[in-house]
C-alpha cells in the first residue's frame, strides 16, 4: 500500500514540475524573465533529483545489507522503486527530446 502512496506522491511531484514549467513558458519573441531558470537549468535540476534519489536508494540498500538498525526492508524496496520510476521517467523525457530533435532536423527548409 505504501508503494502506491509513494508512486502517487512521485506522480504529483512530476505533475507539479510540469505545471511550473508550463506557467514559466513565454512566447519565443519575448526576452527571458530575470531570475527565471532556463530549460537547461530545469533539466539539470531534474537529472540532479533523479541522481539524488538513486544515491539515497543505494545508501539505504547498503545500510540494510550491513545490518544497520532502524533500516526496514520495506523502506529499502520503496526507495528502490522510487529510484527506478524516476529513472524511467527521465529516460522517457530524454527519448522525447531526441525524437523532437530528429523531427526538427528532418523538416524541409
UniProtKB/TrEMBL annotation:
It comes from the Bacteria. Keywords: Bacterial flagellum, Cell projection, Cilium, Flagellum. GO terms for cellular component: bacterial-type flagellum basal body. One of its GO terms (biological process) is bacterial-type flagellum-dependent cell motility. InterPro entries: FliE (IPR001624). GO terms for molecular function: cytoskeletal motor activity; structural molecule activity. The keyword Ubl conjugation does not apply. PANTHER family: FLAGELLAR HOOK-BASAL BODY COMPLEX PROTEIN FLIE (PTHR34653:SF1), PTHR34653. Belongs to the FliE family. This is Flagellar hook-basal body complex protein FliE. The lineage of its organism: Bacteria, Pseudomonadati, Pseudomonadota, Gammaproteobacteria, Pseudomonadales. The gene is fliE.
